[in-house]
Amino acid sequence: MSSESEYFRQEEATRVRILSEALPYIQQFSGRTIVIKYGGAAMKNSNLKDKVIRDIVFLSCVGMRPVVVHGGGPEINSWLAKLNIEPQFKDGLRVTDAPTMDVVEMVLVGRVNKELVSLINSAGGLAVGLCGKDGNMIQARPVDQEGVGFVGEITSVDPRLIESLVDKGYVPIISSVAADENGQAYNINADTVAGELAAALGAEKMILLTDTPGILEDYHDPSTLLTRLSIQKARELIEEGIVSGGMIPKVTCCVRSLAQGVKAAHIIDGRIPHALLLEIFTNDGIGSMITP
Questions:
Q1: Residues 138 and 188 sit within 8 Å (Cβ to Cβ)
Q2: Mind listing the pLDDT tens digit for each residue in 229-252?
Q3: Is 49 a catalytic residue?
Q4: Which residue in 55, 133, 134, 191 is the catalytic one?
Q5: Which one from 37, 49, 51, 133 is the annotated catalytic residue?
Q6: Which of 80, 122, 161, 263 gives 135 a disulfide partner, CB atoms 3.0 to 4.6 angstroms apart?
Q7: Active-site residue, 191 included
Q8: pLDDT band at 135, cuts 50/70/90?
């Protein structure tokens, strides 16, 4: 037997072993809802994007019920520049005046959302694109902060539309735009949308794809990654300032979703190929898992 043939036999054996090892996890999570917040480098890098899309289709094919929430900040900035609108931020929030809101809705609902739908369909899945306005799925109101325009927070979530889609085998792809009772559109943080949807759906897991390894005890040292921690520990890390900056809203939305019944929340590094499968189908995972 040639060395090339032996190599391919070893590759096939490895592939079969991995599938066999994944079986207990497939059995455990079959029929369970998993909410995935898709963003960061995994959206911008075409190679990573392809792997995330394949992971989502794989989850659906083995009986899980993935629900995807996405942002699109870089794409919004790109279109604002094309329209000669200067992006502005205040206390970490995108200042969203009426023209900016039009761009946000056009980009998130009309472009990013439909691109993800098309990619999942092309990979063999069945995806449907939605935003919070559809079926009054998400009701919003303006955040209690002056000078940020149409930035919203969630007042209620009605999961029936999503549940009807996942029951029929579809993968809902949800952009983080919602409206108030008068129909005014609001730009809402995608992490927050993922957390509130996960709670309303009674999700098994909520997974945030980020550009960090997870929750680190020392921000400058990846070896200090906390792989498993409780809600209480997560709150303590925020109070102590160990979790800071952009990680605060991510950890906070994880804690909030867990407090409302989600079984586990994960913050993982979307820059790692097949990060979703590595987190769900291995004992150690690759990021931080917070549990009640």
A1: yes
A2: 999 999 999 999 999 888 898 999
A3: no
A4: 191
A5: 37
A6: 161
A7: yes
A8: very high
* Amino acid at site 160: R
Give the start-to-end residue ranges of the domains of the chain: 30-291
Residue 145 backbone phi and psi in degrees, to 5: -155, 130
Reported as type and span, the H/E element at residue 90 is strand 89-90
Strands laid side by side in the 65-70 sheet: 127-131, 171-175, 65-70, 33-38, 205-210, 264-269, 288-291, 228-230
DSSP 165-225: HHHTT-EEEEESEEE-TT--EEE--HHHHHHHHHHHHT-SEEEEEESSSS-BSSTT-GGGB
Nearest partner of 211 among 29, 43, 5, judged by Cα: 43
Assess whether 183 carries a catalytic annotation: no
Q: pTM for the complete prediction?
A: 0.92
Cα–Cα distances (Å) from 140 to 79, 93, 188, 253, 287, in that order, read: 25, 16, 8, 16, 31
- Whether residue 37 lies in the annotated active site: yes
Q: Is 72 tagged catalytic?
A: no
Name the CATH code of domain 30-291 (choices 3.30.390.50, 1.20.1330.10, 3.40.1160.10, 3.40.390.10): 3.40.1160.10
Q: What is the pLDDT of residue 7?
A: 55
Residues 44, 73, 102, 180: which is the catalytic one?
A: 73
Are the C-beta atoms of residues 255 and 196 closer than 8 Å to each other?
A: no
Tell me, what's the pLDDT at 8? 57
Query: What does the DSSP 8-state code read for residue 135?
Result: G
Q: Residue 100 gets which letter from DSSP?
A: H
Q: Which residue of the set 40, 71, 129, 152 is catalytic?
A: 40
Q: Which of 250, 269, 270, 287 is catalytic?
A: 250
